[in-house]
Amino acid sequence: MVSLDESEQKTSGLWLSLDVQEMSALRAEVGAGFGKLVDNFLEQLPGRVVAIDAAWQRRDGAQMALMAHRLKGVAATFGAARLSALALDLEGLARRAEWEQAGNRLPELSREARQVVSLVVRWGGGAIPGENRS
Q1: Do the Cβ atoms of 23 and 123 come closer than 8 Å?
Q2: Is 31 left (phi over 0), alpha (psi -120 to 50) or beta?
Q3: 103-132 pLDDT, tens digit each
Q4: How far apart are CA 101 and CA 114, in angstroms?
Q5: Contact, 102 vs 94, CB < 8 A?
Q6: Is 19 exposed, middle or buried (CB count within 10 Å of its CB: 0-12, 13-18, 19+)?
Q7: Could you read off the pLDDT of 27-69 as tens digits, one per residue?
Q8: What are the φ/ψ torsions at residue 58 (nearest 5 degrees)?
Q9: How far is the C-alpha of 131 from the C-alpha of 134, rounded, in Å?
Q10: Are 94 and 71 in contact (CB under 8 A)?
Q11: Beta carbons of 49 and 113 less than 8 angstroms apart
């Protein structure tokens, strides 16, 4: 498992994508179920991004706003503040039917989601030493 301290996060720019202190606090709060929670997050994140993009393709503002709102919340829970902020931005753009601007933000959302997945996996994939995930 890799531990990213604050100085490493700042010098590498990773702190923009994942707040490891937030993840550590969540781990402490959830305890033994943390690994499964993270696994679910990692499994569902790509689908959430795809759902937002699909709603944008259909110009379905209500659905896009709903999916972006959900992503905003779950990303914040996991300390992915930049991903949460992008989702918030897309939620507002969808509600205002600002399709061109939303379309311009979608690649950034996708890149950030991939970065978050990479960092969570690098950070340890959610595994707590000795935890039984079955």
Answers
A1: yes
A2: left
A3: 999 999 999 999 999 888 887 644 433 334
A4: 21
A5: yes
A6: buried
A7: 899 989 898 999 999 999 999 999 999 999 999 999 999 999 9
A8: -85, -5
A9: 9
A10: no
A11: yes
